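Convert to structure. Protein one:
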Amino acid sequence: QVQLVESGGGLVQPGGSLRLSCVSSGIIFSNYLMGWYRQAPGKHRELVAGFTSSGSTNYADSVKDRFTISRDNAKNTMYLQMNNLKPEDTAVYFCYARSRYRPTTNYWGQGTQVTVSS
């Protein structure tokens, strides 16, 4: 059974930092392209940051220079370091995994809430 479990969300003041983690099980982690998405109330789910098939990373313009995505294949874990958080970063953050070899095979985590407010 495949599981993606996010953690690290919470309430933080503007300008603060959080580090999200996504631990996977049931998949060969290195065989999957990973990414973080978020969904704010009343809005569509959007890509925040992700790994491409070439191994590079891409970011939404709104988070460039503030967020950093990373992964540790040995720990089956992906991270999102979020600095200088803004109220508009408030959303549920989801972990996403897509097979490198079977693009129609993909999985989502249950999400973790991030709230940026004073």
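Protein two, convert as well:
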Amino acid sequence: VQLVESGGGLVQPGGSLRLSCAASGNIFSILSTGWYRQAPGKQRDLVATITSGGSTNYADSVKGRFTISRDNADNTVHLQMNSLKPEDTAVYYCRVVTTEPYYGMVYWGKGTLVTVSS
């Protein structure tokens, strides 16, 4: 499975961005898709996930501000980010868990940078 993230950029506090993660390859093996983020000098943390069945999960820090969704027509998962704060600044990575070549195989995208600053 190959993943390509897009949609990052510079935004002012309180603004919005929409990230996209386009998957290709053996997409039918995908069990769940998640967005993670890594700020400079910090560990990579979960932001939100969505399963193949549509169940979602969010980090407490983004609940009520971020929404993860999937578009099955073009194999894309989106992360709508509203009310952005400077502390949301990070590289955002897309991650999928799949069943091939074995159950639990993980793939990562290369990331897209989000900068929240005035």
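The chain has a mean pLDDT of 96. The two ends are 37 Å apart (CA to CA).
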